[in-house]
Structures are given as C-alpha cells and as structure tokens.
Design brief:
The chain is mainly β. The protein has one domain: Porin. About 5% of the residues lie in helices and about 65% in strands. The protein is built from one helix and 19 strands. It has a 19-stranded mixed beta barrel. It is globular, with a radius of gyration of 21 Å. The two termini are about 30 Å apart. About 15% of the residues are buried.
Length: about 280
C-alpha cells in the first residue's frame, strides 16, 4: 500500500481514539483462540445495566484476504469481506448483515503516493453513495467527504478537513455537519512508542453557539500498565486503567465521574480480553 495521505475518515482519528477508546462503563468478557491456519474464534459477553448481550465470531485471514463473521444473541449475522490489492493499490471491503441485508455496503479504497479515495455504496434499490478524497502526503493531508441519497437526489452530508502529522504530534481541523460545526484536535506523544500522550479537542456548533472541549492523556506506568484520563467542559471525568495480564490479554477497568454532581455514584466498567 502507498505511504501517501490519510484516508479522510482517519483525519482526527488519533485524537478521537485517545479520548474514547477503552472508556468503558459496562462489564465485558472476551475470549479468543487462534490456529496456525489463520482462523481466529472469539466469544464476547457484555452486561450493560440489567441487560446481557453477546456474540460469537470467526475471523479467517489468508494472505491479503480477511473474512469476519459474527452472530449475536438476537440472531443477527454480520459478515465482512476484506481484500487488499485485489486491484493494485486498493482495498475492497464488502459487508452484509442478515436479516437486515439492506444495511450492507460495498466500499473501495484507493491509495496513491499523493492521494487517497474511497467510494461506498449501499446494497439497496436506491442506495446512498458516500465518497471521500484526501490529497497530500504522509505528513500533510487535506480532504473532503460527501454523501448522496439517490432516492431524494440530495446531499446527506458534506465535510472538509486538514491534518498535519509529525513523528511526535498530530493536529487536525474538521468542518462538519454541513458546515454547522468546526472541530480542532491536537495530540502530542511523549515517548517513541506513543504510549504516553496528551490530547485536546474543541468543537463549536454555530447553530446553537455552543462550545465543547475535552482534554485528556495517557501515561505508561510501565510496559504492562497504562492509565488514561479525560475531562470535558460539562464536568465529566473519565479514567481507565489497563494492564496486560499476559501477552495480548488485557484487563481494563473504566470509570466515569460527574464532577458537577458528586452526590451521584460513579459508573464503573470492567473488560477482560483473553488471548492465548
């Protein structure tokens, strides 16, 4: 694949992941097993409030092809087929769900040293077509995304963004919601492995004249333990403690506090992912 600019959907993703990934408030258990043939089996159980859900899945990886199948407790079946370089410099992703097959789509990503493009079409009689393009290189990228509803012949969305990526930092600006919002984010890494970092994100919505901002970070206590914190302007404080019990097996404990309502009990979540 090309070392060109980010896909448009990846602009601002590093900051978003650092502020959202692993901040759990549910109880989750995931067990995975692997075979030398490239087959991985995963079983996941989640308890959220008083409800328990889960799914079982299988992932088969052979050369440049990956097949991912999941079945949940409601008997919904999700299948994703990914092929890399089936056509040179492209990645093809086909997803299909049963019984709601109309939620499936076909996506093609194209990579070039100075551009990346994506096109996604839904599996319906009158599909929605999404397309994006970003121009630049591995350091600087500028791009845009649009969605078109073939039924009503209208644009469902249009977004533009710019990203600057260095070895120890990443900054981005995104104008979204059909021009109604603008978001800026910045991530700075403090070690070469990018486990310790600081992050900030601010969003302004013009229609309501509201501002939202979140600051956070991650600290690597040692090579097995990671601590993450975040705080937004609504007073919500999130914390994560993640420890590697054994290679690739993670214990994650998350919590959320409302600093403006200390009389309310904090929310806690636990996730245990076991991989041999």
């Amino acid at each position: 694949m090309s070392k060109g600019p980010l896909l448009f959907t990846d602009i601002g993703k590093k900051a978003k992941d650092l502020l959202t990934r692993d901040y759990i408030t549910d109880h989750k258990l995931s067990v995975s097993t692997y075979s030398h043939t490239g087959l991985a089996l995963t079983s996941t159980a989640v308890k959220k409030g008083g409800l328990s859900t889960g799914d079982v899945g299988a992932v088969y990886n052979y050369k440049d092809t990956l097949i991912d199948v999941k079945v949940d407790t409601a008997s919904n079946i999700s299948t994703t087929f990914t092929a890399t370089d089936f056509i040179p410099s492209t990645k093809t992703i086909a997803s299909l769900k049963f019984p709601n097959y109309e939620s499936g789509k076909l996506e093609i990503q194209y990579f070039h040293p100075h551009a990346s493009l994506t096109t996604a079409v839904g599996f319906t009689k009158s599909p929605t077509v999404d397309a994006s393009v970003s121009l630049g290189n591995s350091t600087f990228a500028v791009g845009a995304e649009a969605g078109y509803d073939t039924t009503s012949s209208t644009l469902t969305k249009y977004t533009a963004g710019v990203s600057l990526t260095k070895l120890d930092s990443c900054a981005s600006i995104i104008v979204g919601d059909k021009g109604d919002s603008i978001s800026a984010s910045y991530v700075h890494y403090f070690d070469q492995f990018k486990r310790s970092a600081g992050v900030g994100e601010i969003t302004k919505r013009f229609s309501t004249n509201e501002n939202f901002f979140t600051v956070g970070g991650a600290v690597s206590v040692d090579h097995l333990t990671l601590v993450k914190l975040k705080l937004n302007n609504h007073g919500k404080l999130g914390a994560v403690l993640q420890h590697e019990l054994m290679p690739k097996s993670l214990l994650t404990i998350g919590s959320e506090f409302d600093t403006k309502a200390l009389d309310k009990a904090p929310r806690f979540g636990v996730s245990l992912a076991l991989k041999p």
